[in-house]
Amino acid sequence: MGILSTLLLTPLLGILVLAILPGGNASQIRFTANLFATVVFLFSCWLVVDYNQLYGDIQYYEQFIYNPNFNSAFALGVDGLSLPMVVLAAMLTLIALLASFSVVHNIKSYYISVLLLELGMLGVFLSQDWSLFYIFWELTLIPLFILIARWGGTRRHVASINFVLYTMGGSIFMLVSLLAISQYMPEHGGTLMADMTEAARSMPRDEQLWVLLGFLIGFGVKMPVFPLHGWLPLAHVEAPSPVSILLSGILLKMGAYGLIRVVVMLPEATLIVQPYLLFIALFGMIYGGVLAWRQSDLKAMVAYSSVSHMGIVLLGIATLNFTGLTGAVLQMTAHGLVAGALFLLVGLLYERTHTRNILDYSSLVQVMPRFAFFMTITLFAAMGMPGTVGFVAELHAVIGGYQQWGNLMLFLGLSILISAAYAMRTVGMLFTGPVKPQMREIEDLKLYELVAAIILVAAIVLMGLWPSPLIDLSVATITQMNDFISQSIQ
Amino acid sequence: MDYLVIFIPLLPFVAAAIIGFGHLFNQISGQKGEARSADIAKNAIYLSCVAAIALLVADLMGHNEGSLTAVRWLDSGNLEIELNFITSGFSVIVAVLFAIILVIVTRFSTNYIHKESGFHRFFFVLSLFSSSILFLVLSGNAAATFFGWEIAGLCSYLLISFAYDRPVAGINATRVFVTNRIGDTGFILGIALAFYFGDTINWTDLNSAAESMATPTVTIMSLCFVVAAMAKSAQLPFTPWLARAMEGPTPSSAVFYGAVMIHAGIFLIILLRPVIEQAPLTMGLLVVVGLLTAVYSFVVGLTQTDVKSSLCFAISGQLGLMFLECGLGLWELAMWHLCAHAIVRSYQVLTAPSLLHYVHGNPMKPVPETVAKKRWLYIASLQRFWLDPITDRTLVRPVNGLGYDLDRFDKNIIDRAMGDPASSFSAITTLTQLENKTHKNRLEAVHVEFVKGKGIVGKLLEWIANIMNWFEERLVLRGIGMDLVTMGRKLGQAANTFELLILKPRYLVLFVFIVLMLAASI
To answer: Which regions span the lipid bilayer (chain A) (predicted)?
Structure first.
């Protein structure tokens, strides 16, 4: 059994152990779940150390054919694109579990759901077979539906149903596209990603376009791209804070990750829709930013800022050049860290004050200096301050975009300006201003919350100051993908 | 002397008209007018009784031709309906008998209804009924008989609900009327079939035409008339209406259910004797229904504890025997039975209120030992064999449900489609709702303050933000997201309702009917 299967089976083992444990003993359950999440995280760290950065192909490949009739395979592997996502998923799950101490009822099913969600997310990033990918993709819906509907806010039922309907609706288009490609596979050809890429190349141009549109809808819902983001504000606001961390940190990246794989598969079709992708990306960024600026609900603000930031990923993908792709991959990691940290901190604040309205807050720096410190750094990272990981990613995307479209990148600058506006205003309204009596008795971050916050903020700052390890991790794979794309386009 | 027959139904009708219009125009009203309206009704029925006796005497002496055609009432293609009468035979005998009973009852009522609020109404209805029942008995064609048949039914309805301020009376009257309408359906169908197959609706012509008709044709036609007779004469399964009809005042009970109207059914059977004799199946049905009704009435009658109820089951039992006799071909006996029963029963019902006084010291005979020991029979008898609940369950409730469904369809779909004014449900009705609304407005006001921009760029951003927010709220969140869920839920509910409805027996039955009708039309 390879390292990747072990990685994937660890959360499953955790679920089984949790299922056996008695439900009454809360600390035992919390400890077990955290233990397994830590083990997964350590595995993924070891994977990063062991990974050969100079070699861009799939590594640690393992395969087991589970359906001989169609040659569907349980194929796992990582490359420079999926490895950062695997680490991010493991890390954010651990942090979400650290932030879950406020969940007090039905904790057993809660922790099982979170571990199931981790299993699904890891599976999506690890699988090298489209059918397996699809299974894991859909698997994430079940725990998320339960998590939002049981432990969410007041409108949790609407939010969870809305979320599931949207994603399922998108998945159908993705499935249709996959089926369309499989028409061009040899009989018993299986559904391996590499084989499907070959098959997609032999499709006629117009069919490639339709298939790409299907994928765009499927992944675009998850990412989310501008008109398909209707589920996001509601789901992010109503989900419990730890789930918001995972939702925004990892789940959105699944869409971006899938889209990059598809773009590599169908570069010619992507070239046709390139201008539209650019428009959607730019408009979505400004749209999300303006709406984030308009929200007085902190969680809704972070949710809309996610729409805005994922636009950068789409922009990077749409450039179809090396720098832009690098920017997209970097932004995926950066946004995962920043959005995760933002939701973590906003969630912790909400637990203490039970209000998300930014107008209720004032002068928090006096009672919560540690919180203020981490929150400020994270908000700066969100607006792409140099010295944070967000800046590196945005810089790549801007350069890549400039190579492709020139002065149109002014709009990107505009969206960054808007994000600066709401980030700065949030800092001002939260931490400065007159002292309010109801904001006098708030406790600062506790130890384990501090640990979670430190991990994320440290990653944000360290990778911002010294980004080359992060870039080196992916660069070989991105080069390979870029070569492939530019060959096909010419 | 044939022309006398016209006066027999006409005189009570004129009396009814005078009382009705007099009461309407306040000429006959209050306690002062009581003598007047009673006199009018009495004199009219006296005269018509005399006319009937004269007609009978003339008939017995052989001065009558047997029929009289007054005027042509309707002429349309082949269909030709005359106002004609039968002036000889059994019809005249029955007419005389009924007229005498009506005279007695009218005289009796004068004192009985005295000082009651509906005095004039009662005599109006009684006169109208007298006219209609005599018309029924004497008329020479099916349409005219049906005319009298219906008016008699209507009068029955009016007198059962005589005390219409009591809800029970209204409910019972409606129930009786609707039950009788089932029989009326049979009657109309019978008339139509008679015209279709026999080309005539004159009783005499029809009876002579029956001999040349094929057995199935005659069977179906006669069955239709028999159903009408069964309903009117309270045979199974229509028997329960008789008990409900006892709601009316005693003289009306006597005249309607003791002596006169209840015999209209069996009279119709006897009138159609040649037709029914051609149809063995109908004869069989008469035997079965008559026997069952007789047994049923006997068993149920055993447990009745009030005079009127036990009388009413005795009546239906005797009528069952008459049906049985007709079915067995003992027509003569049935005729005698009819007349004798009418006389005896009218006396019994009229004296019912003082019956206890008469039977004092005359204890009832207990039922035989073997019957008394059967407990299930006792329960069944007490519950009258659950006929009413069964009817409720199989007919009344489904029809009610259908009406309810159609009403909902009307309200929810037709009214809306036609632009019915909006209901008041969406308006604010409670203080809490109002507070919620104002609270929301207050929050919005604070929010607007929050998103205010300064300077040109700030204002521009504010405007763009407002436009985008509108777009997001209206289209993305509400339009696609929420409405999708709401619509899905509504669709699901609609599908559920549809499923529930379609599974209900009434719709299965309706479906079967539609299929049958389609099959028949092809």
So the answer is: 6-24, 31-49, 81-103, 110-126, 132-151, 163-185, 209-231, 243-264, 276-293, 300-322, 328-350, 371-393, 405-424, 445-466
Residues of B with CB under 8 A from a CB of A: 446-447, 450-451, 461, 464-466, 468-469, 472, 476-477, 480-482, 484-485, 488
Percentages helix, strand, coil for chain B (3-state, rounded to 5) are 80, 5, 20
From the list A162, A296, A358, the residue facing B481 with the nearest CB is A162
Per-residue pLDDT of A88-103, as tens digits, reads 999 999 999 988 888 8
Q: Do A231 and B481 touch (CB under 8 A)?
A: yes
pLDDT digit string, tens, across residues A208-229: 999 999 999 999 999 888 888 8
Q: Does the distance separating the beta carbons of B477 and A296 come in below 8 Å?
A: no
Answer yes or no: is B427 within a domain: no
CA–CA distance, A257 with A263 (Å, rounded to integer): 10
B457, B472, B475, B486: best mutation site toward chain A, by most A Cβ within 10 Å?
A: B472
Of the candidates A457, A215, A174, the residue with the CA atom closest to the CA atom of residue A340: A457
pLDDT confidence of residue A13: 93
User: For the complex shown, is ipTM > 0.85?
Assistant: no
Q: What is the pLDDT of residues B450-477, one digit of tens each?
A: 777 777 888 888 888 888 888 887 777 7
Q: What does pTM read for this prediction? A: 0.62
C-alpha span between A464 and A327 (Å, rounded): 13
* Same-domain check for residues B100 and B2: yes
Give chain B's domain count: 2
d(CA A188, CA A85): 31
Residues B133, B219, single domain; the answer is no
Contact across the interface for A230 and B450, Cβ inside 8 Å = no
Q: Which structural domain, as residue segments, surrounds residue B323?
A: 166-354+368-382
Angle at A253 between CA A264 and CA B474, to 5 degrees: 110
Please answer yes or no on whether B488 and A234 come within 8 Å at the CB atom: no
The beta-carbon neighbor of A291 closest among B447, B469, B482 is: B469
Are B304 and B348 in a shared domain?
Answer: yes
